[in-house]
From TrEMBL:
Source species of the chain: Steinernema glaseri
GO CC annotation, single: plasma membrane
Name the record gives this protein: HlyD_D23 domain-containing protein
InterPro entries recorded: P-loop_NTPase
Length: 297
C-alpha cells in the first residue's frame, strides 16, 4: 500500500464488527440447557433456551403433585366423614328414645347393669291404643266383620261399657290360651277376635292389664235392617234375654247393665225401665236377683 494516497482519498485503522443482540433471561434460575452452539445460524422465531420449558415442566409437576395431594386429602376427609357417621350411628343406637308417646309401664334394668344386644330396659305402653283379645267359637266368629261395634266391660268398672270395634278376626283356629280359667275351655278350638277401644282417653280409669269381658253381636241382630234402632231395645226384653241375665244381679241391675252396654243414657234407661217394669208387673221385684225369680215371682 502506498504511503501517499491520491488526492481526495483518506485512510484510517479499525476492526470489523456485527450487530450484537444479547439473549438474556427475564427471571433468575438455573440454566438447564442451551440449544445453540457457536457458529450456528438462528432465526428470531427459533427457541434458543429451554428455560421456559423447564419452568413449565416444573410447574406442571407441581400441579400433578398438588392434585395427588388433593386427592389424598379428599380421601382422608371421606374416611373421616364415614367414621363420624359410624360414631353418630353408634351414639344413636346407644341412646334409647321413645318411639311413640306413651307411659312407662315397667323399668326392666338399672344403671350399671350389663345388657346384651336386644336387652330390654323399659316397657312403654300407648294408652291411646288399647284392646282386648277374645277367643270365640267358629259359630260366632263366622258372623263377625272387622269394623263391627262391640263393648268392653272391665271388672273394675262393671257399670261402664266401653265402646269398641272389632279390629281383627283370626282366619285360623287355635286352642284357647292357657290364661282361660277352665280346662274344658282350654281344650276347645277357637278364633281370636280383637276388640279395640274407640275412645280410650274418655275413660282414664281403664288401664292395660285389667281383666274384663268383651261383647259382640252374634250376627242374627247385626244383619237385620235398622240394627241401630235395635241396640237400645235389647236391654228391655227380659224374656228374650232370660238365658243371658246375670243371676246374682237384680232385675234393675241387669237392665242398667245392658242399657250401658248398648249406649243408652241414664235418663233414657230409667224412663224405659220404669215403663217396662210397669207393663210387665215387675216393679215390685225390681231389686230381686234374677236368679231368685220364679213363676210366681
Amino acid at each position: 500500500m502506498h504511503d501517499r494516497l491520491p488526492e481526495g482519498l483518506s485512510m484510517g485503522n479499525g476492526r470489523l464488527e456485527a450487530t450484537e443482540v444479547q439473549i438474556a433471561t427475564k427471571v433468575p434460575g438455573r440454566l438447564a440447557e442451551v440449544l445453540a452452539d457457536e457458529g450456528d445460524r438462528k432465526y428470531s422465531s427459533q427457541q434458543l433456551l429451554d428455560q421456559q420449558q423447564a419452568r413449565y415442566d416444573t410447574s406442571n409437576s407441581a400441579v400433578v403433585a398438588a392434585r395427588a395431594q388433593l386427592a389424598a386429602i379428599k380421601a382422608a376427609i371421606g374416611a373421616a366423614e364415614a367414621q363420624v357417621a359410624q360414631l353418630t350411628s353408634e351414639i344413636d343406637d346407644s341412646s334409647l328414645r321413645a318411639p311413640i308417646d306413651g307411659v312407662i309401664q315397667l323399668r326392666l334394668a338399672e344403671p350399671g347393669e350389663v345388657l346384651g344386644a336386644g336387652g330390654r330396659v323399659l316397657l312403654l305402653i300407648d294408652p291411646s291404643d288399647q284392646y282386648m283379645n277374645l277367643y270365640l267359637p267358629a259359630s260366632t266368629t263366622g258372623k263377625l266383620t272387622v269394623g263391627d261395634q262391640a263393648r268392653i266391660v272391665l271388672d273394675a268398672l262393671p257399670d261402664r261399657a266401653l265402646p269398641a270395634k272389632i279390629s281383627f278376626v283370626a282366619a285360623k283356629a287355635q286352642f284357647t290360651p292357657k290364661q282361660v280359667e277352665t280346662r274344658d275351655e282350654r281344650q276347645k278350638l277357637v278364633f281370636r277376635v280383637k276388640l279395640r277401644l274407640t275412645e280410650p282417653s274418655a275413660v282414664p280409669q281403664a288401664k292395660p292389664g285389667m281383666p274384663g269381658a268383651g261383647y259382640v253381636l252374634d250376627g242374627s241382630i247385626r244383619q237385620r235392617r235398622h240394627r241401630n234402632s235395635l241396640y237400645p231395645r235389647i236391654a228391655f226384653m227380659p224374656q228374650g234375654l232370660g238365658g243371658n241375665l246375670y243371676p246374682e244381679l237384680s232385675i234393675s241391675e241387669n237392665i242398667r247393665f245392658f242399657a250401658t252396654l248398648f249406649g243408652l243414657s241414664r235418663t233414657e234407661c230409667d224412663t224405659r225401665m220404669h215403663a217396662l217394669l210397669l207393663a210387665t208387673d215387675l216393679e215390685r221385684f225390681a231389686e230381686r236377683p234374677a236368679g231368685k225369680l220364679s213363676g210366681g215371682m
